[in-house]
Write a structure and sequence with these properties.
The chain is an alpha+beta fold. The chain is built from 19 helices and ten strands. Strand 9 and strand 10 form a beta hairpin. Helix 1 packs antiparallel against helix 2, helix 5 crosses helix 6 and helix 16 crosses helix 18. The chain binds three DNA strands through helix 2, helix 3, strand 5 and helix 14. InterPro entries: DNA-dir_DNA_pol_X, DNA_pol-X_BS, DNA_pol_B_palm_palm, DNA_pol_lambd_fingers_domain, DNA_pol_lamdba_lyase_dom_sf, DNA_Pol_thumb_sf, DNA_pol_X, NT_sf.
DNA sequence: CGGCCTACG
DNA sequence: CGTA
DNA sequence: GCCG
């Protein structure tokens, strides 16, 4: 139900953080259902669908539309803020500032002399028409080939993995996310900078926001070794040439566009290999899935989860990291493989935004790790249980299967 | 009635 | 403030 | 707005 997303957006513009979140949760639950809701009975007992959201749904089911939603769609302020925030680098605050100045269109922003755009926003406006167009799976794969070639030229043993929405089975996305890693610990140091340099040499780097590893020896003498490796990531805009895209459709572009290329938003992340499982988890899940997982970690397990590790607050160490260190096997391969297999048993759906079909194809090609290692088994067991215990979509799907 | 993900620049 |  |  796109309606819930619209209500969430409207709440966000009204600075109502709570309702915004509630509507997003509701949207997430509805998206995870195997089919569209036909009557109110079908959503009995589902989480995050309370009095208000149900009332809106009833309105739509009986009249085909909701008065409140129609009102929001027509609202001048909502339309303007939606337009402004669609620009890369422009959030609710900046959009609000422009709206209060009486500005209503993108052209008015660009012609207003008193407005100072930052680097991100300048890129956002410069490539606006391209970036706001959907990216197809074929285009994502084409970019994967280009980047992979560049990466292999630098480090032949490096592995590039498609993550984000495309890994969840989506056909279109607003950007393309990749994870880049090397089998040997530490060899990923500086790799990303090297890759960026090569992309620049090739003339396809249109914009680059690099977030280098924040390591400063003078600044953190007290910090432990474990704390220093915030892995590298970068937000890019790349130039994708026509003819590099496979398939009969080729490039996504407007009729009458004869440039022969388009700009695409690309994210590159380069974690050390022992953090691969966490990076993959973090960058494959949707925004909402990540929130659910991290909330669960903190509230239910007294742990802290991020894209690098799972931190146990009671034990004061990185719980899985210790286990990972003590095993000779590339343990992340094993945990992701089992996790993926477990997920697919229960979640045959692959085509919605909120169901991260955790990727296992790459692992399938390699051998099945030998059993009998108690560390492997323990990590696998805890990891699987952890995910399943909080997977909102899992709960929803389970509910549909057994309670209706 | 308080909390709502967590990290980076 | 913005990005994921 | 929904939940614990």
């Amino acid at each position: 139900m796109d309606v819930m997303e619209e209500l969430a957006e409207s709440s966000e513009f009204n600075e109502s953080k709570g309702p915004c979140l509630a509507f997003r949760q509701a949207a997430s639950v509805l998206k995870s259902l195997p089919s569209a809701v036909r009557c109110l009975g079908a959503i009995q007992g589902l989480p995050w669908l309370g009095e208000h959201t149900k009332a809106v749904m009833e309105e739509i089911l009986t009249f085909g539309r909701s008065f409140k939603v129609e009102e929001i769609r027509c609202d001048e302020r909502y339309q303007a803020l939606k337009l402004f925030t669609s620009v890369f680098g422009v959030g609710p605050k900046t959009a609000e500032k422009w709206y209060r100045r009486g500005l209503r269109s993108l052209k008015e922003i660009l012609t207003e002399p008193n407005i100072q755009l930052n680097r991100m926003q300048r890129a956002g406006f410069l490539y606006y028409s391209d970036i706001s167009k959907a990216v197809s799976k074929a285009e994502a794969e084409a970019l994967g080939c280009i980047i992979e070639e560049t990466v292999h030229w630098i480090a032949p043993d490096a592995v590039l993995a498609l993550t984000g929405g495309f890994r969840r089975g989506k056909e279109y996305g607003h950007d393309v996310d990749f994870l880049l890693t090397v089998p040997e610990m530490g060899k990923e140091e500086g790799l990303l900078l090297h890759v960026i340099d090569r992309l620049r040499d090739q003339g396809i780097l249109l914009y680059c926001d690099h977030q280098g590893s924040t390591f400063d020896v003078s600044k953190l003498p007290s910090c432990r070794f474990e704390d220093m490796d915030h892995f590298q990531k970068c937000f890019l805009i790349l130039r994708l040439e026509e003819g590099q895209v496979e398939g009969e459709r080729g490039l996504q572009r407007d009729p009458g566009d004869s440039r022969g290329w388009r700009a695409v938003r690309v994210d590159l992340v380069a974690p050390p290999v022992d953090r691969y499982a966490f990076a993959l988890l973090g960058w494959t899940g949707s925004k909402q899935f990540g929130r659910d997982l991290r909330t669960f970690a903190r509230k239910e397990r007294q742990m802290l989860l991020d894209n690098h590790a799972l931190y146990d607050k009671t034990k004061r160490n990185y719980s899985y990291r210790r286990l990972l260190r003590r095993t000779s096997l590339p343990i992340w391969v094993w945990s992701m493989w089992s996790l993926g297999r477990e997920m697919h048993k229960h979640l045959p759906l692959t085509d919605t935004d909120t169901i991260p079909t955790l990727y296992i194809q790459y692992i399938k090609g390699s051998q099945t790790p030998s059993l009998g290692n108690t560390f492997c088994h323990e990590v696998e067991r805890r990891f699987c249980r952890f995910i399943k215990a909080n997977f909102l979509q899992f709960y929803t799907f389970w509910h549909v299967l057994f309670n209706i």
